[in-house]
Amino acid sequence: MEKRELLYEGKAKKVYRTDDDSLLIVSYKDDATAFNGEKKGTILGKGAINNRVTNHLMGVLEAAGIPTHFVRELSDTDSLVKKVDIIPLEVIVRNIAAGSLSKRLGLPEGTRMGSTVLEFCYKNDALGDPMVNEYHIFAMGFATRGELAHMADLSLRINGVLTAYFKEINVELIDFKLEFGKLADGSLVLADEISPDTCRFWDSTTGEKLDKDRFRRDLGNVEGAYLEIQKRLLG
Ligand code: TMP
Ligand code: ASP
Questions:
Q1: Residues 53, 171: contact at Cβ < 8 Å?
Q2: Which residues lie below 8 Å from residue 231, measured CB to CB, with a gap of 6+?
């Protein structure tokens, strides 16, 4: 399968058309941004790591019965995926307080909560991906009631599978972001990526951060953290 025209370039990935109208090629970049593009940098090798890590985890989820857009890996940085209409919502799943939730609610990072928290953000860079609730989602038509219920159910199932999977490699899955899309027949599938860019991973023993927070917060050894996650998942 070969790349045709560039359809879209985002902050961390490029998307290309292919000869098959139902398939796209995603190409992962080493570019890193944070705070809605305000902070820019490069994480050497990130594109290849995020490509491999995402594909591995999509395979784990498919095996657990979660439908995804993943078709196959094409190269170090490129993968073939099914074309979807992206639902313009980011689903954030939180097991332990951290990041923007800690700030908003004044909870120290690492605080355990009574149950898993789901949040929805409207995907819109110009607005900085604002958090929205179900009233906004239905009023603006971002998703139907059925779609939102299905996304929430899939997100919690994904959380169960991934939390257990990461526990086996001594990593605590603190929180993560998911995106969903609709295939031509209207069915919902997991899309986008699951990587150290889009998850918080803390070493279960030491609490060391093994994710993009090392870049966001200038903690150093960013490449080392991405490599460590790849090594624990893929050997
Ligand atoms: P937050 O605490 O900054 O809201 O982030 C929650 C999770 O979502 C965290 O695992 C990082 C991920 N995330 C993204 O994937 N993309 C984003 O643009 C942001 C802000 C967070
Ligand atoms: N990727 C996002 C941005 O550039 C935010 C983040 O991951 O922190 O804004």
A1: no
A2: none
What angle in degrees, to the nearest 10, is found between the helix axes of 46-63 and 222-234?
30
180-200 burial code (b ≥16 CB/10 A, e <16): bbbbeeeebbbbbbbbbbbbb
What's the whole-model pTM score? 0.98
- Ligand 2 mean position, distance from CA 37 (Å): 6
The average pLDDT across 126-136 equals: 97
19 Cα: distance to centroid of ligand 2 (angstroms): 32
Q: Which domains, from first to last, does the chain contain?
A: 6-82 (3.30.200.20), 85-221 (3.30.470.20)
Whether the pLDDT of residue 96 is over 90: the answer is: yes
Q: What angle do CA 146, 137, 161 make, to 5 degrees?
A: 55
Q: Which of 9, 28, 30, 33 most suits a substitution to test ligand 2, by most atoms within 8 Å of the C-beta? A: 33
Instruction: Work out the number of other CB atoms within 10 angstroms of the CB of residue 225.
Output: 24
